[in-house]
């Protein structure tokens, strides 16, 4: 990896943790910590931060970093004997020096390939051999792309099953000024009501209290509109049928040691995920899941953002 202004540079981050800084020629940038394989910063060409990381985030193993894009694998949520959201987000990843070819739409030099393999300790808590390859890339236009490839490398002939999410924390001006388009009329599982299944009734999703929902069979494109900043995030996804929407609101925010009491106002998690129907891989099989994020200016139309125009233009 080069240390040119365009491309990828390995350097030290908070508490001496290794991170890779990606820079594009027009000025967009991203930071990826090898701890957790986690994106912790994504800035546009004006230097504006687009992801939320808590001011109280703990950059110290074994605590997961609160914010950015944690990777939830081999499970999303809390089930069986594994820790909440699995262990990929608090393990040390390595730079992948011999990645398989990744199909790419751009000639960007600003990317890094990481790999995670299970340690002996990991195999004691989840007895499956795997290779998890992750590419994080910035397009010349500043879009952020994450591509995950998970392969069953087991020699014992056994399949394994997992759930997955890119736990993306978007930075927003004020949660009460944000709306999501693309999930209306869909079924969702409500984590605040024992995963009971409901159908979304509103014509757009807005926020006035705690939300923790898993939307099912979602479209490949979701728009997150920030009225105050006149900015729209467009999330495109592939291989990830579900979408998790989460904001802890005030009461839960106060219960989290690594999260500021009022920070819920300035963040929103919208996560490309595979939760409802777990993925099963036989030995030698590979799964691929991709997320692409872009931030586009939004214009007001009759006092509101025009989501159809945003979605059609992307």
From TrEMBL:
E.C. no: 5.1.3.15
Enzyme type, top EC level: isomerase
Active-site residues annotated for this sequence: 167, 271
A single GO cellular-component term on record: cytoplasm
InterPro entries: Aldose_1/G6P_1-epimerase (IPR008183), G6P_1-epimerase (IPR025532), Gal_mutarotase_sf_dom (IPR011013), GH-type_carb-bd (IPR014718)
Pfam families: Aldose_epim
Record GO biological process: carbohydrate metabolic process
Domain of life: Eukaryota
Keyword terms, alphabetized: Isomerase
Catalytic activities: alpha-D-glucose 6-phosphate = beta-D-glucose 6-phosphate
Binding positions for substrate per the UniProt entry: 66, 84, 89
Record bears the keyword Isomerase: yes
Molecular function in Gene Ontology: carbohydrate binding; glucose-6-phosphate 1-epimerase activity
Sequence similarity: Belongs to the glucose-6-phosphate 1-epimerase family.
PANTHER family: APOSPORY-ASSOCIATED PROTEIN C-RELATED, GLUCOSE-6-PHOSPHATE 1-EPIMERASE
Protein name per the record: glucose-6-phosphate 1-epimerase
Organism: Dipteronia dyeriana
């Amino acid at each position: 990896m080069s240390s040119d202004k365009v491309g990828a540079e390995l350097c030290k981050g908070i508490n001496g943790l290794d991170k890779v800084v990606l820079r594009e020629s027009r000025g967009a940038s991203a930071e990826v910590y090898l701890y957790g394989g986690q994106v912790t910063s994504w800035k546009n060409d004006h230097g504006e931060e687009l992801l939320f990381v808590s001011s109280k985030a703990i950059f110290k193993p074994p605590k997961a970093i609160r914010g950015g894009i944690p990777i939830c694998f081999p499970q999303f949520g809390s089930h069986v004997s594994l820790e909440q959201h699995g262990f990929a987000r608090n393990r040390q990843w390595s730079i992948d020096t011999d990645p398989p070819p990744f199909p790419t739409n751009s000639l960007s030099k600003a990317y890094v390939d990481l790999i995670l393999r299970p340690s002996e300790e990991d195999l004691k808590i989840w007895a499956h051999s795997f290779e998890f390859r992750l590419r994080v890339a910035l397009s010349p236009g500043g879009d952020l792309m994450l591509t995950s490839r998970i392969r069953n490398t087991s020699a014992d002939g056994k399949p394994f099953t997992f759930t997955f999410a890119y736990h993306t924390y978007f930075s927003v001006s004020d949660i009460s000024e944000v709306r999501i388009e693309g999930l209306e009329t869909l079924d969702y599982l409500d984590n605040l009501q024992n995963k009971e299944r409901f159908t979304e009734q509103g014509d757009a999703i807005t926020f006035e209290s705690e939300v923790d929902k898993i939307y099912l069979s979602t479209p490949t494109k979701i728009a997150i509109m920030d009225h105050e900043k006149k900015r729209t995030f467009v999330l495109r996804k592939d291989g990830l049928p579900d979408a998790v929407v989460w904001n802890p609101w005030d009461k839960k925010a106060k219960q989290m040691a690594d999260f500021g009491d009022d920070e819920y106002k300035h963040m929103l998690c919208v996560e490309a995920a595979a939760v409802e129907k777990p993925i099963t891989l036989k030995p030698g099989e590979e799964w691929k899941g991709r997320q692409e994020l872009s931030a586009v200016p939004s214009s007001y139309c009759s006092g509101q953002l025009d989501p159809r125009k945003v979605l059609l233009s992307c």
